Amino acid sequence: MVFTFNDSSLSSITSERLLRAMQSVYSALCSLNLQDKVSITTAHSLAVLQTSYLPFAGRFHPDLTPCLTAILNFHLKTGSPFLINAYPYFAYKANPKQVPLEFVLFQPNSGIVDPATNLHYDNMLFAQIDAVHFAVESLGFKDDAVCVQISETGWPSKGDADEAGATPENAKKYNGNLINKLVCGKKGTPMRPNADLNIYVFALFNENMKSSPTSERNYGLFKLDDSSAYYTGFNSTGLLSTSSNTSTPPSSTGSSSSSSSSVPPGSSSSSGSTTSSTAVVVS
């Protein structure tokens, strides 16, 4: 992720270099006639938004607008997706007394209604995604001209004493309910109900070399010894079950997966169908 801090001078220089790198890789693909098979993109933190609540109010930081407009124009030209890393956990961690846990874990709840659009949201992730949709539209990219995809989301299974909600039970609910919603439920967000929605779960393994806080080292579906951090419904061949209510894992242990996607390896997270496209992420 390049654009995290609201520093216009740094963003301008970084954006120019990043965009040149993306254009260079794209030109190389064109020379090999591979531009329709490989997408060139880069991931952004949700912090590029100045406002994200309510979704209709979603807007990018003004200092980042020129940089992001240039990148969005690149995506429009090449047909590649605009990637966002979105973590409802951070919102819950920052204010656990005000943010309902059910709303961030895809559990039954009354949800929220955006009064500007009258759209109802029953989970925070989809509200965040639509905030990005509205931010993109505010720069003139209408009618889903640029596809928004979620390159990272997840929930930590362990945290420090002040990291509310970082438990195996909540991580299992978040990822399990997300999989249920994408694989077994309806497509899209309230703003884009008929659009394919690709979401990738972070991460496949815990990362013990990361610095504090503890949660940063414990987003993995698996531990470093290949054992499950919690039961996910995955084994070495892919998805076993999408039920997040399953409390007892199958008899086999030490299972692993070769993909950090929210569906079996080689599949699209929105429909489970095998895809033939590839993405190159420049960061």
Concise account of the structure shown:
With 283 residues, the chain is α/β, with parallel strands linked by helices. The chain is built from six helices and twelve strands. The strands form five sheets. A four-stranded parallel sheet has the order 2-5-8-9, with helices on one face. A two-stranded parallel sheet has the order 1-12. It has a two-stranded antiparallel ribbon with strand order 3-4.
Description:
- With 283 residues, the protein is of the alpha/beta class.
- It has six helices and twelve strands.
- The protein has helices spanning 8-31, 65-78, 88-94, 101-104, 124-138, 168-184, and strands at residues 38-41, 43-45, 49-51, 59-60, 82-85, 112-114, 119-121, 148-153, 199-201, 234-235, 238-239, 278-281.
- Strand 3 (49-51) and strand 4 form a beta hairpin.
- Residues 242-276 have low confidence and may be disordered.
